[in-house]
Design goal:
The complex is a heterodimer.
Chain A (H helix, E strand, L loop, with lengths): L3 H9 L2 E5 L6 E3 L2 E10 L5 E9 L6 E7 L8 E7 L5 E2 L7 E2 L3 E4 L2 H5 L7 E4 L6 H11 L11 H6 L8
Antiparallel strand pairs in A: 1-3, 2-3, 3-4, 4-5, 5-6, 6-9, 7-8, 9-10
Chain B lengths: L2 H11 L2 E6 L2 E5 L12 E5 L5 E5 L3 H6 L7 H13 L3 E3 L2 E7 L3 H16 L1 H4 L1 H19 L5 E5 L10 E5 L6 E6 L2 H16 L5 E6 L7 H10 L2 E3 L2 H16 L1
Parallel strand pairs in B: 9-10, 10-11
Antiparallel strand pairs in B: 1-2, 2-3, 3-4, 4-6, 5-6, 7-8, 8-9
Helix pairs in contact in B: 6-9, 7-8
């Protein structure tokens, strides 16, 4: 059972890229997919990142940080940056309904309730596209060295500077 | 107000349609996944026919892929769930075709099917595990039919709790073969094989994994020190098992 402090520590700890994503997204079953492996820079934590974008509706995407504990096969989705896909409704902490882009974050409350760890989300205007979300994700997950992963053109044209609600 | 009037009113007020593309509408209903995201249901109308495609445009399988890999065994379970719920899949798009007359029950059926696919990660571990052991058994019967083998053997008479899934007899020493689908079984196999070694039994320990990646590092390390040969996937055992057995028997 993870506490909120442990979850925040896992999200915020400095991370390096151990295995970079592929240069091109892979198309599989209607989705463009990619991923990378991370390690905590100063601690023994291992993470993976999934990057997904729906081909039919590119505004529907998800970029997530997954913790791989060394002593359990059960992974933990810590963070997910989601595009607008319909709506999201919180079932824990509050019962806010979010229509647009949002960020899922693992909470102890969700785990205790038996929900998905990342069941709680907040609306965001920090990103509106997959590329903007990836830039933002690198920041909030504290991942070093985005060179080769994030196209500098994306940074120039991004609307970076928004905030979580 | 009767129950049916009440239900009609409540459903009506919580249903909405939004045009997301020409000829594609998204249905907003109060159905949510366990992470709070609304279940994705689209209605594709075919202007030439009376057919409405109730579908998800790949969203369900995209969500499933976040932290769940579809191994061949899990793919079989997925296809069974799709089929049993009257759905079809085309390039990741789960769908059911219907007419406007039966749209409402089709939507309920589709939502139920999507929910089952989405919860595969949690609920199908036992299904996959059971299928793995059955498939292993069938494959051993098929691959090694010209060898003498016995199931559920207890090599040490007064320690009947130390069991071997399959003992395969070769001209040299027997192969003790185990199927391992989870950490608990991995631990049991480690303990058993180490006990056999300590008691002086001559054997060759083999393990066929359902999915090597599902084990913890510790379980993998202990197992590696206890047995001689591991097939990290069932697929690998199907391809290579016979060759290794022939090599042992030579």
């Amino acid at each position: 059972m993870y506490t909120d402090e442990e979850i925040e520590h896992l999200i915020n700890c400095r991370k390096i890229i151990v295995e970079k994503p592929k240069k091109e997204m892979i198309v599989e079953r209607g989705t463009e997919r990619n991923g990378m492996l991370l390690a905590a820079k100063d601690e023994q934590y291992s993470f993976q990142v999934f990057m997904r974008q729906l081909i039919a509706f590119p505004e529907r995407f998800s970029i997530g940080l997954v913790y791989n504990p060394s002593d359990s096969p059960d992974k933990l989705i810590l963070l997910r940056c989601n595009g607008a896909h319909g709506e999201h409704k919180n079932k824990v902490i509050d019962n806010v309904t979010i229509p647009g882009c949002h960020i899922h974050r693992a909470t102890n409350a969700a785990i205790v309730e038996g929900l998905a760890a990342e069941a709680h989300a907040k609306a965001t205007d920090a990103f509106f596209s997959y590329e903007q979300a990836l830039i933002y994700f690198f920041q909030i997950a504290n991942i070093e060295d985005s060179m080769g992963v994030i196209n500098p053109v994306w940074i120039m044209s991004s609307l970076f500077g928004g905030t979580e609600a | 107000m009767s129950i049916i009037e009440s239900l009609s009113k409540q459903f009506n007020s919580q249903i909405a349609l939004k045009l997301v593309r020409p000829d594609i509408q998204q249905l907003f209903v109060p159905l949510y996944h366990e992470d709070g995201d609304m279940v994705d249901i689209f209605l594709n109308e075919n202007p030439q026919s009376n057919i409405i495609k109730v579908c998800d445009h790949g969203m369900t399988l995209m969500r499933l892929s976040y932290s769940y890999d579809l191994t061949p065994a899990r793919e079989r379970v997925l296809q069974r769930i799709i089929s049993e719920n009257g759905m079809q899949e085309l390039n990741g798009n789960l769908y059911i075709d219907c007419t406007s007359e039966n749209l409402y029950p089709t939507i309920l059926q589709f939502a139920q099917g999507v929910a089952k696919v989405s919860s595969m990660r949690v609920h199908t571990k036992e299904m996959v595990r059971s299928m793995f052991y059955d498939m292993l058994s069938e494959n051993i019967l098929e691959q090694f039919s010209d060898f003498s083998f016995e199931r559920n053997v207890t090599p040490i008479e007064d320690r009947s709790y130390l069991e071997v899934d399959y003992r395969i007899d070769t001209p040299h020493r027997p192969i003790f073969l185990y199927g391992v689908a989870n950490s608990d079984k991995a631990k049991v196999v480690t303990i058993s094989c180490q006990a056999f070694l300590l008691s002086g039994l001559k054997f060759t320990g083999w393990v066929v994994h359902e999915n090597w990646d599902d084990l913890t590092n510790k379980d993998r390390t202990f197992l590696t020190n206890a047995v001689s040969k591991q097939f990290t996937t069932f697929q690998q055992f199907k391809l290579e098992g016979r060759r290794f057995l022939d090599s042992e028997a030579a």
